[in-house]
Design a protein that fits this description.
The complex is a heterotrimer. Chain A is built from 19 helices and 22 strands. Chain B is mainly α. Chain B has a single domain, classed as ABC transporter involved in vitamin B12 uptake, BtuC, CATH 1.10.3470. In chain B, strands 1-2 form a two-stranded antiparallel sheet. Chain B is globular, with a radius of gyration of 20 Å. Classes of the chains: A alpha/beta, B mainly alpha, C alpha/beta. At the A-B interface, α1, α10, α11, β18 and α14 of A face α9 and α10 of B.
């Protein structure tokens, strides 16, 4: 095996952006039939390297060899011709497009008259779907003509992967392909990756999910701050050693959970209902308590969060805050009642990415800095600086535009903007999605300190371990309803999955 | 506040952030080398007066574009405001009353746009296009298409001066301050930036989106009304067909000034710089005596170059996303 | 709720406009229906002409006119022509927006057997095919140019303000100035020439810049009165320009006032009233059978200077444009 020429080799790749050395003498090689995982905190240079391989960025120095020969990759099109395919973290797609069209986007086949050969498109798309078996027919309500807006984000992601592997790529780069996938589909994807490996493909895999990495990887490379730290066979490493190599320090405990005195009920929700979205939602959260919401993607957890924060109001039901009944019809209502919601969709509901850190953090708190209609800059700057320091937000200045921050720091800015308010009820929807291990740990610590201050915290997450690690109690949602409540003492991954997947219904029928 | 690491980076950062003012500076220097009459107090005073009406309109457009909207009715509404203001002056003889009526006319008409956009969710492009036709029809109807002359002391708004500074220029700087203050020191300003940058995030942060949009149209209306009064006064006539195409000129000024058509980005000072760039270009080309067909070509090219340079400078500032 | 409201509003608007329309044209069979298609109501001369046509036509009890606004758009004008054929008007008076563009539509009218009068301007290629009433745009420029030849001082420096490129009136007036003035006065230099699109405000900006760029300007040659007035606006309080000669064309109310004040040197009078009177009379003569042959009628375009400005003042006093 060691005699074999690696299918891809990167030699001494360096790349500098203004003010940042993103990659410094990076070296990496992978063979056919290998799953090579690349681990590193956000900002370590993983995505930059992948973009260089895919021809989106040009390296300042260094060379790429494909199959032993120097490759000149100046665009994604070049990359494609070298047999490189890329599946992105957050794929852009056109909602009105059909599944079949999306399989051929950019290269729709034409018939003799020069119009699109739809017959071929539909037949061949169906053929590819059948062949690759990534998507179950039940995921596409109208078959191959289903519009992308009518399928889950997970299905769109799976389509992307199907497309990449159908192009017969030799090297497949996957950048966080499972970050928006529910567990069942993640499992399916991991199986597919192992199958692809057996077919002799080389897979460069980026993920923050350690369990996935260890399930599929042959080799693991660890980056830190744009530098290559080590490359080792997966069998020589374990989760703890990878994490400590990534962050450059030992992480003592996975979850900084502490025993906190739990107080009175802060938020009590009864019979919350929204037509076609959720119904009969009954739950409560107490001061100092972290309450989890488990469930599959699409179970209605996010929708409940949006309803309670006034973004997308409920139809009827009773909401009580500190024992008083309140009505939440819009966001100002929820702010007035001390409810804050950190959305799962940072780019949609979280940040105004073209604006700077200061303005984003001040946005829901303007009343604090405004007197007689005048906004006092000094007070605003002080408040923002204080939170940046206490939450260790890494930004060149508070005037830096938020789209230029790393995912973890963006998430911290979103949290910070609600923490300036000191609201007493925090609803956190996927607070650690797409951010690196170090930043996750910091967010967990923040949650604990919020709980210590007596805040009531709702945590929605699709990552079972963090729910189990952080929550005092946990509700499971399935198809718009709460189907089960667990106390920390009863936590078990299997039981929760059982309810989340709707298995309890199945046995009854 | 944390500081940037080294001095070079810092200088570069400031230069890039202020690229539009650099462009303005370069045009200014080149102009003063091209013609000895350029750098005279009287000429610069002329330039200021020539850009004041369009720049005031551009301040309104700036607020709208930052919030992700637009106003195509500027030219027509501005004609209505000017004509009504002159009519009131001719009846009452009161300059103050005429000014108030002019501004109110702009406000009232923009309330229509504001209602359509905020509460009926009409796309701003369509809503203001409708208002443009309505307003133009209205002003032609009330004047029967005829110009109004003999407007007497009404010319003081546009032709008078306060001290050495022409009145329209004073108004332009007042509106600059108003726009700057709104954008930087009020809740409304923050709401404008947030809505244009990401309407959903603004809403989820408790910003009242519909109300904000409505208010921005009302403010724009006041600017347009004022500009109409100044314009009619400057030309010493009530011209019902004035202002055709002014919406595009005002948009051009705002965009050159660094306002982003995709929303969320723009400043009052940038728009003023945009007004200066357009005004200086027109002025120097006339002073030098460039053929009017060639002028149009040069102007188009320079506008495109300025925007390209500005965008390139801004993009270079962006750090990689990881 | 909103939808119902909008719908009701729409129905109300449409029905009210129908009522208005019905009110304005009582249908009588023994009355001749005349369509007047104006180039653009937004153009002050065109709307003056349209208003005058309405006024003159009202004097004939057996004729009735509908005024249509072409809004300076060939497409609008052309569709009004087509609609007028469909609606079986007895006669059509057309003020073309663009001769080339309207020609095929005018020929359709002729083919349909409906008499058509072209006015302000006529389409030269269609003389002999249609009736026409017009003033000669070359002559309008020429009367001023001939007057200027003797007035403008030796080695004078002049500036020129033109109308929109490709506009027939502007081109004809420019040609007249070239032939009747510049060709005869080679000593004169043009120190600035720009297109101000007939607009007063644009002319003002150009003049401001010219005043800066030149020590001395002896005369402003403008292809219409609006632009001439703009140039005068700039120098009105500047004693250095007391002797400035300014020439316009059109004979607008503002020009009348400026000539009376002694600031505008001359203009030529294109009298919308006279055009309207001739149009109405010709229309009536055609419809009653008094005129059978195709005729082309011209109105005069007298030169207006301080000596005869009362003529112009009176015309505008009659409309109320001057008090």
């Amino acid at each position: 095996m060691s005699q074999e020429i690696p299918i891809i080799e990167l030699h001494n790749i360096s790349k500098k952006f203004p003010g940042v050395k993103a990659l410094d003498n990076m070296t990496l090689s992978a063979r056919e039939g290998e799953v090579h995982s690349i681990c590193g905190e956000n900002g370590a240079g993983k995505s930059t390297l992948m973009k260089i391989i895919n021809g989106i960025y040009k390296p300042d120095s260094g060379e790429i060899k494909i199959g032993g020969e120097v490759a000149k990759i100046n665009s994604p099109l070049d990359a494609k011709s070298y047999g490189i395919a890329m599946v992105y973290q957050e794929c852009a797609y056109v909602p009105e497009m059909t599944v079949a069209e999306s399989m051929f986007v950019g290269s729709l086949p034409l018939n003799r008259i020069g119009t699109v050969d739809w017959k071929y498109v539909y037949e061949h798309a169906q053929y590819l779907l059948d062949k690759e078996q990534m998507i179950k027919p039940s995921q596409l309500p109208h078959g191959i003509k289903t519009k992308l807006k009518d399928v889950s984000l997970a299905t769109v992601q799976l389509l992307e992967i199907t497309k990449a592997i159908s192009k017969d790529a030799k090297i497949i780069i996957m950048d966080e392909p499972t970050s928006s996938l529910p567990n069942v589909e993640t499992e399916l994807l991991l199986e597919k990756i192992i199958e692809l490996k057996k077919r002799g493909k080389c897979i460069l895999y980026i993920s923050h999910k350690m369990d996935e990495i260890f399930k599929i990887s042959d080799t693991i490379t660890i980056f830190r701050d744009g530098q290559h730290i080590t490359t080792k066979p997966a069998s020589d490493l374990n989760i703890d050693s990878v994490v400590s190599l990534m962050v450059g320090r030992e992480l003592v405990n996975d979850y900084p959970k502490e025993k906190i005195q739990i107080g009175d009920i802060k938020l009590n929700v009864r019979d919350l209902h929204k037509k076609g979205v959720f119904k009969n939602i009954n739950f409560n959260v107490k001061a100092g308590e972290i309450v989890g919401f488990a469930g599959l993607v699409g179970a209605g957890r996010t929708e409940v969060a949006l309803a309670l924060s006034g973004v997308d109001p409920y139809d009827d039901g009773v909401v009580e805050v500190d024992g008083h009944q309140v009505t939440i019809k819009n966001v100002p209502d929820s702010i007035r009642n001390n409810i804050a919601m950190v959305s799962e969709d940072r780019r949609k509901y979280g940040l105004v990415t073209v604006r700077n850190v200061r303005e984003n953090m001040a946005l829901p708190n303007l009343d604090k800095f405004i007197r007689n209609g005048h906004l006092h800059r000094k007070e605003e700057i002080d408040a923002v600086n204080e939170k940046c320091d206490s939450m260790r937000i890494k930004t060149p200045t508070i005037e830096t535009v938020t789209k230029n921050l790393s995912g973890g720091n963006q998430q911290k800015v979103v949290l910070a903007k609600w923490l300036i308010r000191a609201g007493s009820i925090m609803i956190l929807d996927e607070p650690t999605r797409g951010i690196d291990v170090g930043a996750k740990f910091e967010i967990y610590k923040l949650m604990v300190s919020m709980a210590k201050e007596g805040k009531a915290i709702v945590m929605i997450s699709s990552e079972m371990p963090e729910l189990l690690g952080m929550c005092d109690r946990l509700y499971v949602m399935h198809e718009g309803e709460i189907v089960k409540e667990f106390d920390r003492s009863e936590f078990s991954q299997e039981k929760i999955m059982h309810y989340a997947a709707g298995a309890h219904n199945f046995t009854r029928k | 506040m944390k500081t940037l690491t080294n001095r070079f980076e810092r200088v570069k950062y400031i230069a890039v952030k202020n690229s539009i003012y650099l462009i303005l500076g370069v045009i200014f220097i080149i102009s003063s080398l091209l013609n000895e009459n350029f750098l005279t107090v009287l000429n610069l005073r002329n330039v200021l007066r020539q850009i004041s009406v369009i720049t005031i309109l551009a301040f309104g457009e700036t607020l709208l574009i930052i919030a992700g909207m637009i106003d195509l009715s500027v030219g027509a509404v501005f004609a209505v405001a000017g004509i009504l203001s002159i009519t009131v002056f001719k009846i009452t003889g009161s300059l103050l009353l005429a000014l108030i009526v002019g501004i109110l006319s702009g406000v009232v008409l923009n309330i229509i746009s504001g209602m359509l956009v905020s509460y009926f969710k009409t796309p701003p492009f369509i809503a203001t296009l409708a208002l443009m036709t309505i307003a133009r029809g209205f002003v032609l109807l009330i004047t029967k298409g005829q110009n109004i002359y003999q407007i007497g002391r009404f010319v003081e708004f546009g032709q008078g001066s306060i001290g050495f500074i022409p009145t329209p220029v004073v108004f332009m700087f007042l509106m600059l301050i108003v726009t700057w203050y709104i954008l930087n020191h009020t809740r409304l300003g923050r709401a404008i930036y947030a809505i244009g940058g990401n309407e959903e995030a603004a809403m989820a942060s408790g910003i009242q989106v519909a109300k904000t949009k409505f208010i921005v149209y009302v403010i724009n209306g006041a600017f347009v009304g004022l500009a109409g009064v100044l314009f009619m006064s400057r030309v010493n006539a009530g011209l019902p067909n004035a202002g055709i195409g002014f919406e595009l000129e005002a948009l051009t000024v705002a965009i050159i000034g660094g306002t982003s058509f995709s929303g969320g980005i723009g400043t009052a000072a940038g728009t003023l710089a945009g007004g200066f760039i357009v005004g200086l270009l027109n002025n120097i080309m006339n002073l030098v005596g460039v053929n009017s067909y060639v002028q149009q070509i040069i102007k188009g090219v320079i506008i495109a170059l300025a925007v390209i340079f500005d965008m390139a400078a801004k993009n270079r500032r962006a750090r990689p996303e990881e | 709720m909103k939808k119902v409201l909008i719908l009701m509003l729409a129905v109300l608007l449409i029905s009210s406009s129908v009522v208005f329309a019905a009110g304005s044209s009582e249908q009588e069979d023994d009355v001749f229906k005349v369509a007047y298609i104006a180039r653009a109501q937004g153009d002050s001369f065109a709307s003056w002409l349209a208003n005058s046509i309405q006024q003159e036509m009202d004097k004939y009890p057996d004729m009735e006119v509908d005024i249509m606004d072409g809004q300076a758009s060939d497409e609008k004008v052309n569709s009004f022509i087509e609609n007028s054929i469909t609606n079986q008007y007895d006669l059509i008076i057309l003020q073309p927006n663009n001769g080339e563009a309207q020609t095929p539509y005018v020929l359709q009218v002729v083919a349909a057997g409906i008499p058509i009068i072209l006015t302000n301007p006529r389409i030269p290629d269609l003389m002999g095919t249609t009736y026409s009433v017009d003033a000669d745009p070359y002559e309008q420029g020429a009367v001023n140019a001939r007057y200027a030849v003797d007035l403008v001082p030796q080695n004078a420096k002049v500036v020129v303000l033109n109308g929109p490129a490709g506009n027939m009136h502007s081109t004809a007036r420019e040609l007249a100035w070239d032939k009747e003035f510049f060709a005869k006065r080679p000593d004169v230099t043009i120190v600035g020439e720009q297109i101000a699109h007939w607009n007063k405000d644009e002319a003002m900006s150009f003049m401001e810049d010219w005043v800066q760029a030149n020590d001395k300007i002896d005369a402003v040659i403008s292809m219409n009165d609006n632009m001439a007035a703009g140039a005068l606006e700039v120098v009105k309080d500047n004693p250095k320009y007391d002797d400035l000669l300014v020439f316009g064309v059109d004979g607008t109310a503002e020009a009348a006032l400026l000539i009376e004040e002694g600031r505008l040197t001359s203009t030529s009078f294109q009298n919308a009233y006279e055009l309207a009177i001739k149009n109405a009379k010709l229309a009536h003569d055609i419809l009653t059978g008094e005129v059978t042959d195709l005729v082309d009628t011209d109105i005069d375009c007298p030169l207006i200077t301080k000596e005869n400005v009362e003529l112009l003042m009176d015309a505008h006093r009659a409309t109320g444009a001057i008090q």
